[in-house]
Amino acid sequence: MMEKKAMSLESFERLTQAYGAALDRWPEDERVAAEELLAASAEARAMRDRAAGLDRLLDRLPEHRPSPALRGMILAQTAGAPRRGLAARFAAGWRGFWAELGHPVPVGLVLAASLTLGLVLGAGTFTRAPQPGVDLVQFALLSDLYAQE
Amino acid sequence: MQTTRHERADDPDLPLVRLIASGDGDALAALMDRHLHRVTALAGRLTGNAADAEDVAQEVFLRVWRHSAGWKSGQAKYATWLYRVTLNLCHDRLRRRRETDMETMDELPGASPGQEAQLQRADVARRVAEALAALPERQREAVVLSYYQDLGNIEAAEVLEISVEALESLLSRGRRKLRELLRDELDELRGEP
Question: What is the pLDDT of residue B44?
Fold first, then answer.
C-alpha cells in the first residue's frame, strides 16, 4: 500500500477555508494527514482556531424544523390526487396476463380491453342495485385517464 | 420502474421510490420520514423563512409523488435529486420575492424572547441569517449544503452540478465573505468565555 504524502500548510489552509475547523466536515481522505499536521504544527492549529470562530457563529443559526402537521398535509394531498395508480395497475394486470401467455401486447389494446371490460361490467349493473365497487373502479379509471398529463 | 444499468445499487431510497411509483402512499410516508426534516431545513436556510420552507418541502414531496414513475436515476442518488429540486424551488421563491420587493426576514425558530441571554443569542442568530442571505446565491447554497446539511463534498458538488474544485472555491469565497460580514460578531465571540 502506498504511503500518503504529508499535508502541506498551504493545503491545510485551503481546506480550512473551504470546510471549516471540524475535520469531520472535511473530505475523508484528507483527515488523517490533517490530524498529523495539527499535532505537529502550531501554525496549523492557529488556522484551525480562526476557522472555528466562524463555525461557532454559524452554529448559532437554528434549524427550521417541519411542523407536526406538515407530513399529514402532504399525505392528505397525495391521497386526493389520483395519478397513474389504478389505471396503470389495471393495464399492468392485462400486460402481465399476456406476458404469461408469451405475447407482447400494445398499450392501446390494453386500454381498449380495460374499457370494454368496464362497459360490460357497467351494462351488467344497469338494472340491478348499484354496486359501489364497480362504480368506483370505473370512476377511478376515467379520473386517471383525465389526470394523465 | 425497471432497474437501468446506470442505476446506483447502493442508493437506499430506490426500493421506496419504486413502491411510490406504483402508487404506494405508505412508501411516500416512509420516504418523508427519512428526508422531510432535511429538506425543510435546507429550504429554511436558503429562504430564511419558515412558511416558505414548509411550502417548498410540500411541493418537493408532491413532485416525488407525481413524477417518481418516470424518474431515471442516472449516476446520482435519489436524495441528491431531492436536494436539487429543493434548491430550484427555493430559487423560484427568492426570485419572486425579489421581484415583488417584499422581502422580510422571518422570525427565527427558537428565538423566543425572554431572558437577556436568550435575546442576545437570537440577535446573533439573526445577524448570521442576514449574512447568509447576503451571500451570492451559489456561495450560499454551497455553504448550506456543505456546512449545515452535512453533505460530503462529492454529493454537494453533485447537487450543485459542479466539480469538487468549483465547490471548494465557492465555499472559500462564501466563508471569507461571511467573516467580513460578521467581523463584529467574531470580535464579540473572542471576548466570550
Answer: 95
CB-CB under 8 Å, B179 with A66: no
Query: Contact, A15 vs A34, CB < 8 A?
Result: yes
How far does CA A136 lie from the centroid of its chain?
30
- Determine the longest span between alpha carbons in chain A, in angstroms: 92
Give me A72's grid cell.
Answer: 399529514
Q: A19 to chain B nearest CA, in Å? A: 7
CATH of range B11-95; options 1.10.1740.10, 3.40.630.30, 3.30.70.20, 2.60.120.650: 1.10.1740.10
pTM of the shown model:
0.72
Q: Is the ipTM of this complex over 0.95?
A: no
Instruction: Show which of A60, A78, A103 is a domain's final residue.
Output: A60
Which of B24, B139, B177, B179 is best to mutate for the A interface (most A CBs within 10 A)? Answer: B179
Query: Could you give the CA distance from residue B135 to residue B173 in angstroms, rounded to a whole number?
Result: 9
Provide CATH code, domain B111-193: 1.10.10.10
Is A96 in CB contact (< 8 Å) with chain B? no
For residue B21, give how far its alpha carbon lies from the nearest alpha carbon of chain A (Å). 8
Q: Which residues of chain A have pLDDT under 50?
A: 1, 85-111, 113, 122-149
